[in-house]
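Justification of resources, computational component.

The compute hours requested in this renewal are based largely on the per-chain cost of generating structure records like the one below. Each record pairs the submitted sequence with a full structure-token output. That output is archived, and it is also reused by downstream analysis tasks.
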Amino acid sequence: MKKSLLGILLMAIVIAAPITAKAGVRVGVNIGIPPIVIGVGGPPDLVEVPYAAGVYVAPDVNVDLFFWNGWWWRPYGGHWYRSRYYDRGWGYYNRVPRFYQRVDPAWRGYYRAHNWHGRPWNYERIPGSRFQRH
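The structure output for this chain reads:
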């Protein structure tokens, strides 16, 4: 009985493996936690968003990553997640956070141009380690 069950399990893996490889599917356990790909060795530097007091963005990160009200925030897959840490402990947040209403979705372009809606944006980069301590 154990051999036949093992054989069925092995056959299922052999059949499923080529399908996932061909489709480019990544197999893993993620249980609703967003994959955070930060690409920095420590807490990312932040910049305060103009006209959104207390809202900070991480311009050097390859995903939208915000810091507000003592939390790190991340939109992913049409949902929001938050954590006390930039690199772990993400939990689902069941609505759009209040701060996001004050964030222009095109903030990266304005950041690169040093220009916020036609006005000079002379932002100050703040070391992320300063936020991580609080």
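The mean pLDDT is 78. The two ends are 58 Å apart (CA to CA).
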